[in-house]
Design goal:
Blueprint: H1 2-111, H2 117-190, E1 197-200, E2 203-207, H3 208-211, H4 221-240, E3 248-254, H5 268-285, E4 293-297, H6 310-316, E5 318-324
Parallel strand pairs: 3-4
Antiparallel strand pairs: 1-2, 2-5, 3-5
Helix pairs in contact: 1-2, 2-4
């Protein structure tokens, strides 16, 4: 009887287990459904943003092409105006010469007692040539006035196109500032309260002791972990930056002014450059496009602290990261 009672209690508990498993399964299905809907809404939003950015890119290309055409046309007009001005000057000189000759001939003829038939014909011909020349000068002056008006209109259009292009470029700069602010904000949250890491202006500053052993360009385990975190954050931000927006992450290596006592590196130039290159290689291995990376060595010539204390030397041994335009 006692054994049967135990078995009976075991059978009564089984439906409860079944209910609990069913409830858990429904919760999991609900969570998956919410996640799928969220992904769908996010995809629609991102497609809309990408369409707007593509439209802006096409407009910039059209503006640039139109500006180039206008500049070429303006140069052609300026050359034509210069040619007309030169011809006008030559014609004015010729007219003045002819007028002087005519006046001289007229004076000679007037002083004579009797003008010959040939002289009168010559005077009439000169007068006719002078009248034709004056007509030509008037036509040239009118053409010059029209060309100058056309040039002013072209200059106004070129100025307007330049303003539009400047506005488009300013918008690109603002976009890069927004992405740079987002990058620094996310990275600040991830690296908050980490010793030896601080923000100076628009740069992240990593003390060398956080990333490298003394006198070495090989990343420590802790330094590699920090750079992996940086790479993940940068990949997330880079995926949101439009392809036509030029940006670059500059990795700057700095050393203190103490002479290096290391057979691996002859001077602080080699050490600071090698450390910057090591960071760039790790970021490239973590999936960052090398076209968006730059490694620079500054040796000891860009110090943060001009003191001669161990603390000042430690501050100057650093790696700086800066997201900027190319």
């Amino acid at each position: 009887m006692r054994r049967r009672g135990v078995r009976g209690n075991g059978l009564d508990a089984w439906p409860g287990y079944v209910d609990a498993l069913s409830t858990l399964l429904m919760v999991i299905i609900f969570v998956l459904l919410v996640f799928v809907l969220a992904q769908a809404f996010l995809s629609v939003a991102l497609n809309g943003r990408q369409s707007a950015l593509d439209r802006l890119t096409r407009e910039m290309a059209q503006l640039t092409q139109l500006l180039s055409l206008e500049k070429g046309h303006s140069q052609s007009l300026e050359y034509s105006v210069a040619t007309l001005k030169s011809q006008h000057i030559r014609d004015e000189v010729s007219a003045a010469t002819l007028a002087a000759e005519l006046n001289a001939d007229t004076a000679k003829l007037a002083s004579a007692d009797k003008l010959s038939t040939d002289s009168q014909a010559q005077v009439a011909l000169l007068n006719q040539q002078l009248a034709e020349l004056q007509k030509q000068l008037a036509a040239i002056s009118q053409a010059l006035d029209i060309s100058q008006a056309d040039i002013k209109d072209r200059d106004a259009k070129i100025t307007d196109l330049g303003n539009k292009l400047n506005l488009a470029l300013a918008d690109k700069v603002e976009q890069l500032k927004r992405y740079r602010s987002e990058f620094f904000g996310r990275l600040s949250q991830l690296l908050a309260h980490q010793p030896g890491i601080r923000v100076v202006g628009d740069r992240f500053v990593f003390q060398s002791e956080v990333l490298f052993p003394p006198g070495s360009a090989e990343l420590s385990a802790a330094g590699r972990a920090q750079m992996n975190t940086l790479a993940r954050t940068l990949k997330t931000i880079a995926a949101e930056i439009p392809p036509d927006l030029p940006w670059i992450l500059r990795v700057d290596g700095h050393a203190d002014r103490q002479p290096i006592a290391n057979t691996a590196f002859a001077t602080n130039w080699e050490l600071s450059s090698a450390r910057a290159i090591t960071v760039v290689k790790l970021l490239t291995a973590d999936g960052i496009n090398p076209q968006n990376l730059a490694a620079t060595g500054f040796s000891q010539f860009q110090p943060l602290d001009n003191g001669s204390t161990p603390e000042a030397y430690a501050r100057n041994r650093r790696i700086e990261l800066r997201l900027t335009d190319r």
